[in-house]
Design brief:
Strand content: 5-15%
Helix content: 40-55%
Distance between the termini: 29 Å
Largest sheet: 7 strands, parallel
CATH class of the largest domain: Alpha Beta
Bound molecules: nicotinamide-adenine-dinucleotide
Structural class: alpha/beta
Strand order of the largest sheet: 3-2-1-4-5-6-7
Length: 266
């Protein structure tokens, strides 16, 4: 758990893709600071319900779940409407849902390209399009997009992911300019490698693409990129998020916090 504390009582946050990995950790980090939560994401219904009940019981906040699929713009609109109508407010939107596929450009399946662009980039557009009017009307709001070190730097075999994440950075800056005078901010967090289910499956895929062992992928590809030689911890991302959503974060706008062990300094 992050040591940073911010009073978020009375606020509501939507976190896309919060049934697993980083999104679940960010949802818990916000709940631990008093924020009501709308969980979203795919997965086993009983596991999602167990997560919802655990957060609600542990942190004494209201926790709801909405099943919007980030491939479907109409469902994303419903998710935002659910937060503002059923929960009464929408103070924080964390666009986190994402998928990955690792393959050479000449072998990259077109349907994977389409799905990655839809989930990792277009869903951010659709969620922001519907959240911004609510936040403007409230006179305050915080949008935080979980992009990636790959929003600013490339690696081979991840064409769709890197194109989408670079797009998220451009979208973040554009929205920031449009909302700046309304008490709303839009920023990104760019994590390096975090040991989540998404990364675990990438280790196997990268080993296959590069013809090396999984241990070599971790040592020579992933942690090679990160000068600290350590995976990023969930709590370190929660700390960055809490700063951006706090009142102290009011003048951070259109920017990004890189939490990547120095990867982008190289
Ligand atoms: P994860 O696979 O653990 O979680 C992804 C979440 O997105 C899950 O809740 C999943 O259900 C949800 N999701 C996937 N497709 C969806 C869809 N169609 N509709 C709704 N929800 C959907 O992955 P993670 O590693 O926690 O990644 C979360 C975010 O962080 C992603 O945007 C990823 O690109 C980014 N990121 C991850 C790392 C890392 O090292 N893990 C590094 C940089 C950025």
């Amino acid at each position: 758990m992050a040591s940073v504390r911010v009073d978020l009582s009375g606020q509501t946050a939507v976190i896309t893709g919060s049934t697993s990995g980083i999104g679940a950790a960010l949802a818990e980090g916000l709940a631990a600071n008093g924020c009501d939560i709308v969980l979203n994401g795919l997965g086993d219904a009983s596991e999602i319900e167990a997560l919802r009940v655990r957060l609600q019981d542990d942190y004494k906040v209201r926790v709801a779940y909405h099943s919007a699929n980030m491939l479907r713009p109409g469902e994303i609109e419903d998710l935002i409407a659910f937060a503002s109508k059923e929960m009464g407010r929408l103070d924080i939107l964390v666009n986190n849902a994402g998928i990955q596929h690792v393959a050479k450009i000449e072998e990259f399946p077109a349907e994977k390209w389409d799905a990655i662009l839809a989930i990792n980039l277009s869903s951010v557009f659709h969620a922001c399009k519907h959240a911004v009017p609510v936040m403007k009307a409230q006179g305050r709001g915080r949008i935080v997009n979980i992009a990636s070190a790959h929003a600013l730097a490339a690696s081979p075999f991840k064409s769709a992911y890197i194109a989408a994440k670079h797009g998220v950075m451009g979208l973040t800056k554009t929205i920031a300019l449009e909302v700046a005078e309304h008490g709303v901010t839009c920023n990104a967090i760019n994590p390096g490698y975090v040991r989540t289910p998404l990364v675990d499956s990438q280790i196997a895929d990268t080993a296959r693409e590069r013809g090396i062992s999984e241990d070599e992928v971790v040592r020579d590809v992933m942690l090679y990129a990160q000068p600290t030689k350590k995976f990023v911890e969930y709590s370190q991302l929660v700390g960055a998020l809490l700063y951006l959503v706090s009142d102290d974060g009011a003048n951070a706008n259109g920017s990004s916090i890189n939490v990547e062990g120095g990867w982008l300094a190289k």
